[in-house]
UniProtKB/TrEMBL annotation:
InterPro entries: Acetoacetyl-CoA_reductase, KR_dom, NAD(P)-bd_dom_sf, Sc_DH/Rdtase_CS, SDR, SDR_fam. This is Acetoacetyl-CoA reductase. GO terms for molecular function: acetoacetyl-CoA reductase activity. PANTHER family: 3-OXOACYL-(ACYL-CARRIER-PROTEIN) REDUCTASE, 3-OXOACYL-[ACYL-CARRIER-PROTEIN] REDUCTASE FABG. Its EC number is 1.1.1.36. The keyword Lipid metabolism does not apply. One of its GO terms (biological process) is poly-hydroxybutyrate biosynthetic process. One of its GO terms (cellular component) is cytoplasm.
């Protein structure tokens, strides 16, 4: 049976690697993105994976987007809630808008996507939801009260929804990546990044493909007994 997956923020960075890994598993993939049309087009041309534009923080836009994907590809069996942003600053300088944008996108996006797809998965008796959290949701990070709160929230959201899906063949898991060599990390000042890498036992940044490998494990047909878990993929930087 050919499954259908949506990867939010699936056109670049970690999301791109996830989209490609799922396609390689024989899954029909729709890659969502927010606004970078040129990157999305280049991604679709390169991979043959269709891209769909909507803002995951917009409840109505998510529902319309999911409806379009279902019209084009069929009922959605798998979602990977990967879309995420940072708006870093200490709480002294952090504006309400910076707080709200990160909470609404990183955590609200998971809710909106689950609301649009979980009922169908539940009624068909099979589904896979993977939420991309962060090491900084587990451990906290200076200058990231918004991001750490949203990512920490994802871990609670995952465990709660896993309990609702368990009897219906719907697994819900999270991945907590450490520092991965994407645009998001390229925005970190070089001297700060050097200090971060010095604390990673494996001695380097992770690659997006190393997160995609975890997603492939969690969405597999025979993955039905793994639910409510958080898989940390962080080069040994944070163990608990
Ligand atoms: P990137 O910044 O490289 O890519 C982000 C992707 O998310 C883009 O495709 C972007 O679309 C999309 N996106 C952003 N906002 C929205 C939105 N409102 N609606 C829909 N799509 C949106 O991020 P990474 O690949 O680095 O990160 C992916 C995920 O992994 C994020 O959730 C991040 O928090 C998490 N993570 C990353 C780590 C890292 O070290 N890189 C570490 C731990 C967690 P567009 O191209 O249109 O802008």
């Amino acid at each position: 049976m050919t499954r259908v997956a949506i990867v939010t923020g699936g056109t670049r960075g970690i999301g791109e690697a996830i989209s490609v890994a799922l396609k390689d598993m024989g899954i029909k993939v729709a890659a969502n993105y927010a606004g970078d049309d040129a990157r999305a087009k280049a991604f679709s041309d390169r991979t043959g994976i269709p891209s769909y534009k909507w803002d995951v923080s917009d409840f109505d836009a998510v529902h319309a987007g999911v409806e379009k994907v279902e019209h084009d590809l069929g009922p959605v069996d798998i979602i990977v809630n990967n879309a995420g942003i940072t708006r870093d600053s200490t709480i002294l300088k952090q504006s309400y808008e910076q707080w709200k944008a990160v909470i609404d996108t990183n955590l609200g996006g998971c809710f909106n996507m689950a609301k649009a797809t979980f009922p169908g998965m539940r009624s068909r008796g099979w589904g896979r939801i993977v939420n991309i959290g962060s090491i900084n949701g587990q451990a906290g990070q200076y200058g990231q009260v918004n991001y750490a709160a949203a990512k920490s929230g994802i871990h609670g959201f995952t465990k709660a929804l896993a309990q609702e899906g368990a009897k219906f063949g719907v697994t819900v898991n999270a991945i907590a990546p450490g520092y991965i060599d994407t645009d998001m990390v390229a925005a970190v000042p070089e001297d700060v990044l050097e200090k971060i890498v010095a604390k990673i036992p494996v001695g380097r940044l992770g690659h997006a493909s190393e997160i995609a490998r975890g997603v492939a494990f969690l969405v597999a047909e025979d993955g039905g007994f793994v639910t409510g878990s958080t898989l940390s993929i962080n080069g040994g930087q944070h163990m608990y």
